[in-house]
Write a structure and sequence with these properties.
Elements lengths: L6 H8 L3 H15 L1 E7 L2 E2 L8 E3 L3 H5 L10 E6 H14 L4 E3 L8 E3 L1 H16 L4
C-alpha cells in the first residue's frame, strides 16, 4: 500500500539532522521500492555547487525543495530496481555522489553510490531476507 507522510512527519523531517534523515530515507525507499528526484525535462536536480544528484523518499519531500535553483523542477519517480541496475553503475563510473534527502537550511548527506547501495541491500536483507 502506498505511503504518504503525515503533515507532522513532513514538518519534523524538514528540520531533522542528516543522521536521522539518512536511515529514514533508506527504510522508506526499501519499504516502498521507489524514490524520487527533482526533474526538469531530462535534467535531474543536483545539489548546488556539486554534481551530486538529489534524492528523496517521497515526492512531497522533493516538491518542497522545488524553489530557487530548482524552481520549475517536478518530482520524478525512480524505481529501486532502476537505481540499483542503471543509476548506480553510471554514477560509480562517473564518480558522482548522491545528495540524500536534502532539506532547506540544513546540512545534506552526501554519499557515494556504493555506500548507499550497501545501506539499501543491508536493509533489504535484514527486513525482507533479500540476497544480492
Amino acid at each position: 500500500m502506498p505511503w504518504t507522510p503525515k503533515p507532522a512527519e513532513l514538518e519534523a523531517l524538514a528540520s531533522a539532522p542528516p543522521e536521522r534523515r539518512l536511515p529514514y530515507f533508506v527504510s522508506h525507499v526499501c519499504d516502498q521500492r521507489r524514490l524520487w528526484g527533482l526533474q526538469q525535462g531530462t535534467t535531474w536536480a543536483r545539489l548546488h555547487g556539486t554534481d551530486a544528484v538529489a534524492l528523496w523518499p517521497h515526492p512531497l519531500y522533493a516538491e518542497a525543495m522545488a524553489f530557487g535553483d530548482w524552481a520549475g523542477f517536478r518530482p520524478g519517480l525512480i524505481l529501486l530496481e532502476e537505481l540499483r541496475e542503471e543509476w548506480f553503475p553510471a554514477l560509480i563510473e562517473n564518480d558522482q555522489l548522491l545528495a540524500v534527502f536534502p532539506v532547506a537550511h540544513h546540512e545534506t548527506v552526501l554519499v557515494r553510490p556504493e555506500e548507499l547501495r550497501e545501506l539499501l541491500v543491508s536493509y533489504l536483507h535484514e527486513h525482507y531476507g533479500y540476497e544480492d
